[in-house]
Design brief:
about 200 residues; alpha/beta; Rossmann fold; 7-stranded mixed beta sheet; 11 strands; NagB/RpiA_transferase-like
Length: about 200
């Protein structure tokens, strides 16, 4: 329980730091992140990549998703189905987006559901070892677990601004470590250290 309390405190603190960035700073930093991401993310034609459509003060990964699509990736984004489950639906240029929960939008029922091979994971906070704090709902943990149960092993790349880094994230048995972290200052490859732990 102490770990959860510390995580909640770190989440609130780092989200406040993210909120404090001006809109212009977020645009500039998001474009820098996209540039670093293009240099760091290896993919083949048809590689399935999940991104996300930004809400609140999140990194805007749409420039990176556009660049990856130009290199041949198929892009999908998470859609919340209920209080427990998210699926990843293909995002095609010009596709109609429908309103979801938590202020999100995403592709409708006619969009293909994909199992991403590379996941761009939004973060509330992270540490240098690749431990992450999400928004507290556990959606990505459950989605990654379901993918692993299907025999998929997606590469997990955390997406955040530098100001969201903390010294240390408390570890819990169900936590899933990232294979890399992408911020406006560059990409940190943690794949040699990244150990996926599912309770």
């Amino acid at each position: 329980m102490a770990g959860q309390s510390i995580k909640a405190s770190l989440r609130a603190e780092r989200l406040a730091a993210r909120d404090a960035l001006s809109a212009a700073e977020r645009v500039e930093k998001s474009l820098s992140l996209a540039s670093h991401g293009m240099a760091a993310i290896d993919l083949n034609d048809g590689t399935l990549v999940s991104g996300f459509l930004p809400i609140r003060s999140e990194v805007d990964v749409r420039p990176l998703m556009d660049l990856l699509r130009q290199r041949g990736a198929r892009i999908c984004v998470p859609v919340v189905l209920d209080k427990e489950i998210i699926v990843f639906r293909e995002l095609t240029p010009g596709a109609e987006l429908v309103a979801g929960v938590f202020g999100t939008v995403g592709p409708g029922l006619d969009a293909a559901e994909l199992d991403p091979e590379i996941m761009l994971v939004p973060l509330a906070a992270f540490d240098r070892r690749g431990h992450r704090i999400g928004y507290g709902g556990g959606y990505y943990d459950r989605a990654i677990y379901r993918l692993q149960q299907k025999g998929c092993n997606p590469r997990l790349i955390g997406i955040a601004f530098d100001c969201q880094e903390v010294a240390s994230v408390p570890e819990e048995p169900h936590d899933i470590r990232l294979h890399g972290i992408l911020t406006e200052s560059g990409f940190r490859d943690l794949s040699d250290e990244a150990i996926v732990k599912i309770g």
